[in-house]
Amino acid sequence: MNKKPRINTGKILKVYWDHIRRYKGRAFLILLLVATANTLDVLVPLFYKRFFDVLAGDLVVEGQEAVPVLVGTLGMVAVFHGLIWLGWRTSNLLSNWLQPRVMADLEQTSLANLHEHSYRFFSNNFAGSLVRKVARISRSFEDVADQVQFHFVPLAILLTGNLLVLWTRSHLLATVLFAWTLVFMAFNVIYARWKLKYDFARAAIDSEVTGILADSITNAITTKLFTGAEFEKGLFRDVVERLRRANTFTWNLNEILEATQSALMFVIEFVIMYLAIKLWQQGLLTIGDFALIQGYLIGIFMKIWDFGRAVRKVFSALADADEMVEILHLPHEVKDVRGAKELQVQTGRIEFQHVYFSFNQTRRVLRDMNLVIEPREKVALVGPSGAGKSTVTKLLFRFYDIERGKILIGNQNIAKVTQESLRQHIALVPQEPILFHRSIVENIRYGRRDATDEEVIEAAKKAHAHEFIEGLQDGYNTFVGERGVKLSGGERQRIAIARAILKNVPILVLDEATSSLDSESEALIQKALEELMRDKTTIVIAHRLSTIMKMDRILVIDDGQVVDSGTHKQLLKKKENIYKKLWEIQAGGFIA
C-alpha cells in the first residue's frame, strides 16, 4: 500500500489509438456530432431567457404581440432539442458500430501477443489470470470511450459555452463560477489519483481471485483425490474476503467524495443566486437571466457531478488495462532474428554443438552439450531426473534460447530460422497430452488443419484410436472436455499420436509417451508408435528403460552432458555406468 502504483497511461492511450485509427473517420464524426449537440445545448437556455424576459415585460419585440413571440421562442427551443436529439442518436449508433469493433480488435491483438510469448512466460502465469486481463483491456476501452463521449467532451463544451455566455451577462458571476469549477475539478482529480493506489490494489486482488478460482477448478479431480475441497474452499474464502474488504473500502471512499461534491454544489448555488439577486437589485440582470443562470447551473451540476464519477471510472479502467498493456509491451523472450529464413529439412540430422543453458543464474542445466543424431536415427535419452533430458527437447523446439553454442537441423542453425517453420517440422507426443475442449476430429486435425475427414480417420486407425472412437456415442464428433478429461490416459495418448501421424514431419519427439499407461494400453500405443516413428528422426525420453531397448542408440545424460552412448546391449556390457545402474534398479538384472 505504501508504494504508489504507476499506471502507464501514455502506453495505454497509445494502444487504444493504434486500434481506433483504423476507424478514425467514424471516431471523429462521433466527436463532431457530440460537440455540435452540446453546443446547441448551451444555446437553449438563451431562448428560455428570452421567453421569461418577454413574459415579465423586460423585453418587448417591436411590432409583435407577446404571445406569438413566446410561441415562436418555444418553437426554436423545440427545433434545437430536435437537432440535439438527432445528434446524440446518430453519434450513439456510430458508437455502437465503432466500440465493439475496437474491443474485438484489442482482444485479438492481446491473444496474438500472448501466443508470441515464451514457454517460460506461460509457466509463470495463471491461464485464468491471462484470460481475465484480455477481457479487461477491451472492457476498459469501452469505459474510457464512454466517459470521453458522454462526459468529458460534453462537459468541456458546456463549461466553456456557459461561462462565455455568462461572462456577457456578468463578469462577477462568470468569474466566481469559473473559480468554483476549477476547485471542484481539481479536488476530484487529486482525490481520484490519491485513491488510485487502492483501486490498483483491488484490481490485483481481483486477478488473484480469478487465478485461484481457475486453478482450483482446473484441478478439481486432484482436489477430490486428495480430499482437498475444504482446503480449497478455505483458500478461496480468504482471498474473496480480502477482495470484499477492498471493495468496501474503495466504495466508502467514493461515498466520501460524493458527499463532498454535494456540499460544494449547495455552496455555489447559494452564492451565485445571492449575487444574482444583488445584481438584479442594481438593474443589471433581468428575470430571464435567473432562468438562464439556473439552467446553466443545473446543466453544469449534472455534467460536473458525472465528471467525478467519470474520472474515477477512467482511472479504474486504466488500472484494469494496465496489466494487459504491460504484457503487450513486455519483450518477447524468444524472437525470430531479423531476416530469419524458413527451415528447409532435406534430412532430419540434429546436432548440438557446445550448448550451454541455464534456467536462472543458479541453475545450470546443460554445460558444453554435444550430440549428433543422424537422419532417421532413433535415439533414446536416458539419465537421472534433472539431468537435462527434457530440456534438450525444449531447446530443440526453441522454447528457450541457449546461452552459448549452436543447435543445428541439417546445416541450419535453428536460432536463424523462423520459429513457426521450425515447429512445423517437429512433432511431439508428450507424457500428458493436453487436448482442446473440442471434438475428437478437431483435435486430431490440429496436426494438419487442411486434412480431410478421410485422412483424419486413417491417422486414427494407424494410432489404434479408431476402435474406441467409433464406440463413443458421437464418434469423431465427441467433445473431449477441458484438457481431454472425458478420455482415459491411453485414449488421450492415442489421439496425440494420431495428431502426430497426421502432421507427418521428419523429426519426432516422444517425451515419456507411455510412462503413465497400463500394460494393455502401452502395448497398443507401442504399435502406434512404431508406425509413427517409421522413416523419422526420433528422440525418445523414457524412464521405463524397457521401452527404449529397440532404439538405434541410447545417449546417457548426466549433469547436463552426454556421458555415454551405445545400444542397449553395448551399454550393459560396460563395467560401471549410469545406464547399467538404472537398468538394474528397474529390471532387477533379470532381463539382458
Question: Helices and strands in order, then pairings?
Answer:
Layout lengths: L8 H12 L3 H33 L9 H51 L2 H5 L3 H43 L1 H48 L1 H6 L3 H53 L5 H42 L21 E11 L2 E11 L4 E5 L6 H8 L7 E6 L2 E2 L5 H6 L1 E4 L10 H6 L7 H10 L3 H5 L18 H15 L3 E5 L7 H15 L3 E5 L11 E6 L2 E6 L1 H6 L4 H10 L5
Parallel strand pairs: 3-8, 3-9, 6-7, 7-8
Antiparallel strand pairs: 1-2, 1-4, 4-5, 9-10
Helix pairs in contact: 1-3, 1-9, 2-3, 2-5, 2-9, 3-5, 5-6, 5-9, 6-8, 6-9, 8-9, 13-15, 15-16
How would you describe the overall organization of this protein?
The chain is an alpha/beta fold. The protein has helices spanning 9-20, 24-56, 66-116, 119-123, 127-169, 171-218, 220-225, 229-281, 287-328, 389-396, 419-424, 440-445, 453-462, 466-470, 489-503, 519-533, 568-573, 578-587; strands spanning 350-360, 363-373, 378-382, 404-409, 412-413, 426-429, 507-511, 537-541, 553-558, 561-566. The chain is elongated and about 120 Å long.
Pick out its properties.
alpha/beta; ABC transporter transmembrane region fold; Rossmann fold; six-stranded mixed β-sheet; four-stranded antiparallel β-sheet; 10 strands
CATH homologous superfamily identity of the largest domain: ABC transporter type 1, transmembrane domain
Report the span from N to C terminus: 65 Å
How is the largest sheet built, in terms of strand order?
Answer: 6-7-8-3-9-10
CATH architecture of the largest domain: Up-down Bundle
Number of helices: 18
CATH class of the largest domain: Mainly Alpha
